[in-house]
Amino acid sequence: MNAAHDTPRDDASTGQPENLEDLVVHASGVGVRRGGNKLLADLDWSVELDERWVILGPNGAGKTTLLKLAAAELHPTTGTVHVLGEKIGRTDVFELRTRIGFTSAAVNSRVPGDEKVRDVVVSAGYAVMGRWRERYDELDTERADELLAALGIAHLGTREYGTLSEGERKRTLIARAQMTDPELLLLDEPAAGLDLGGREDLVARLSELALDPDAPAMALVTHHVEEIPPGFTHALLLAEGRTVAAGLLDDVLTAENLSATFGQDLVLERSGDRFFARRR
Ligand SMILES: Nc1ncnc2c1ncn2[C@@H]1O[C@H](COP(=O)(O)OP(=O)(O)OP(=O)(O)O)[C@@H](O)[C@H]1O
Predict the structure, then answer these.
(1) Nearest C-alpha to atom 23 of ligand 1 is from which residue?
(2) Is 63 in the pocket of ligand 1 (CB under 6 A)?
(3) ipTM of this predicted complex?
């Protein structure tokens, strides 16, 4: 494993890192088992306030499982996970989840098709899916419209979610994930299913977000190096539930590490601040 990332020192008396309050996520010796399968094993990972992580790995590597741990949607079988200073398993996850923005295919499938786009975004503030109040506060609506505008879909606020294209849905969910001003933003394959133009547009918008110093800490799961938005600072490469390499993006994203992660002899090319990979 590449140890490019400085892991925080653990306090010998408590087993907790000394600077836990500076860490958005701290996973230590984490394993997740389901039905005899090791989804994650022996995983250490720390995310600091100003970091933007990309989590890369092949199908079944454990990426979504790791993101669910960070989203306080899953408990580790072994080891400990702290999110925003709270220990998973010892905290009120419902309160904690309001501090985390999370988009995934599972969130997408929970949105009612007849929900208006603006309501999908605003309702995140009430931790409900589905419009339950006749009128939201004007401030909430303004905030939702701002977020939709920042993602280039201000014109879709009154459309029904079920009528949106795949790319428009992804952007709506990213706006929703930001609605509560989260301290941690988790994006599970935000560019999956998008055409080339849609992908490039999303990468550019995520890049803007990543470069915004006021934006929350971020972790983005993807299968493709082409989808890494400029401004992302760190990378965690996962294969078969284990870390292949983790640390600063420039140190970790090498042809050698990528080849080990995907089990193929890969060439990695860099053009400006974007990456491209192909088999040798
Ligand atoms: N409840 C479960 N019981 C048994 N195995 C499971 C369970 N949930 C997930 N798995 C397995 O754990 C492995 C990791 O799943 P996970 O969804 O985290 O991978 P991933 O890297 O996100 O994959 P993908 O890129 O295909 O979405 C997969 O092999 C999956 O089949």
Answers:
(1) 60
(2) yes
(3) 0.95
